[in-house]
Each structure stands twice: as C-alpha cells, then as structure tokens.
Amino acid sequence: MKKILFILIICFGIQQSNAQKKIYVSDSFEELSKDHQIIAILPFQTTLNLKSDKKTYSEAQLKELELSEGIAVQQALESYFLNRKRKKKLKIEFQDINTTNRLLHKAEITSEDMDLYAPQELCKILKVDAIISGTLTSRLLLSKDVDTSFDLVTYLKGKSDYGKIIIKLSNKNNGKLLWRYEKTINRKSGKNTRNIINKMMRIASRKFPYEEKI
Q1: Exposed, middle or buried: residue 153 (CB in 10 Å: 0-12, 13-18, 19+)?
Q2: Which of 19, 57, 111, 129 could form a disulfide with 36 if both were Cys (CB 3.0 to 4.6 A apart)?
Q3: What is the structure's pLDDT at 208?
Q4: Residues 58 and 147: beta-carbon distance below 8 Å
Q5: What distance in Å separates the CA atoms of residue 50 and residue 48, rounded to the nearest whole number?
Q6: Percent of the chain beyond pLDDT 90?
Q7: 58, exposed or middle or buried, with CB in 10 Å at 0-12, 13-18, 19+?
Q8: How far apart are CA 162 and CA 70, in angstroms?
Q9: Is 136 a residue whose pLDDT tops 80?
C-alpha cells in the first residue's frame, strides 16, 4: 500500500510539473500598446508526429492535417477572445479570422512560410496593430476528442505529455514580443482544441495584458 501511495505521489508531482506554464509580459507593454485598437489572430504553424496513430498518412495528408490543426487553434482562440469581449473584459477588437486568412492568401503567405515574415510586415499586410501567432506540436489530432482518462502506466512511462503550444503577441511598429504563453499539453489539458484553448486561456487571463482590471 505504501509503495502504491509513493508511486501516486511521484505521478502527482510529475503531473504538477507538466502543468506549469511559462508566461512572459514585456515591461514596455503599456507604452507600446497604448494605441492598439485591432488585433489579428493568425493560423498556427503546426507540426504533427502521428507515428503512434494506427493510420498511415502520406506526406500530402499530413500536410493537410497540419494546416487544419493550425486553423482549429486560430478558430478556438477567436471564439475565446470574442466571448471575453462580449463580457466587456477586453480593451481591443479582433479582426475576423476569415478576413485575416483572405488577406494572407491574397499576399500568398501560407502557414508554412509565415515565419519568413517579420511581425511588422504581417501587421502591415493585415492592417492591424498587433498579431497573435504561435506554434503547435502534437502527436495527436487535437481537433478531435482525445482520451483524457488517467492512465498510470502512461504516466510511469513518461508519455503523458503529447504536445506543446506557444502563443505570441507581437507589436506592429517594431515587431517586439509583447506577450508569450507556453504550455505543455497532456491529458489534463482538455479533450480537444477548443477545450484546451479555453482552459489554458482562462488560467492565463490575469496575465493577458489587454484584460480589463476589475
């Protein structure tokens, strides 16, 4: 019984460690963002490692899945921020993601080559004051429901984490990083993309610099 309890304590410690979040807010945020009115949310650059999946994917299929997973994160973030905006808890507006994606397509910018452009270049193309961008790495398709039940064997094998998401907020004038949020994704993170984004952003909301202070 003591051995089992000891193992559970270790697992809990690992779980807590994995749940740690890294949030950065620029010391210059207030000064650089004082005139911000509208922000664009970009499709996320996604890398999938689906080797553990029973299906076999071609290179073209994997590329298509990565694009759709990146769009799913973009949609989930828009949904979250618009909900916060309806509750009058955010100071800024968000460009409709359909408009964002049309402007990116018109400029022949894809998720794959987006990192070749400086944030200020993307802001100019999108006609916004700042952009929210980021990366997602995952060994599961998060846009579909994943198994969130506790699995002791998986934890002991060190395979409880199945991805990482990084969200960045960058300024239009100099491309300066204003805010960054890094989160390891595991079984406790949520069952799908929207669930994961809602949960992690609720936790980070006090650190999101556009939040109205109550």
Answers
A1: exposed
A2: 129
A3: 82
A4: no
A5: 6
A6: 47
A7: exposed
A8: 16
A9: yes
